[in-house]
Amino acid sequence: MERCDSCGRELASTWKFCIYCGRPMHRAVPALAAIPAAIRPDLSTEEEAKKYDAPFWVGIGMGALGLVLIVYAAIQIYTSYA
Ligand SMILES: [Zn+2]
């Protein structure tokens, strides 16, 4: 038998929370601790994104340069037919 941390009543080991006061049993704490672990992948990917920050901006710059060249080429082609 385990005891409720809140009300001190005896609880069946199979219960996920105290039926008397509704407090989650301390075995449920690892499940709650798993929530930051679930958020952690987002934080790690953010760190990964920071790691690849320079290539990202290089990619944007190259993309913008390519777009400018395409627009320039389109204008050249258009004006040559006009
Ligand atoms: Zn309780």
Give an account of the 3D structure.
With 82 residues, the chain is mostly helical. It has one domain. Helix content is 63%, strand content 5%. The protein has two helices and two strands, in the order ββαα. It has helices spanning 29-51, 53-81; strands at 2-3, 10-11. It has a two-stranded antiparallel sheet with strand order 1-2. A hairpin with a 6-residue loop joins strand 1 and strand 2 (10-11). The longest helix has 29 residues, at 53-81. The radius of gyration is 30 Å and the shape is rod-shaped. The termini are far apart. The model has no long low-confidence stretch (mean pLDDT 78). Bound molecules: zinc ion (ZN). Zinc ion binds next to loops.
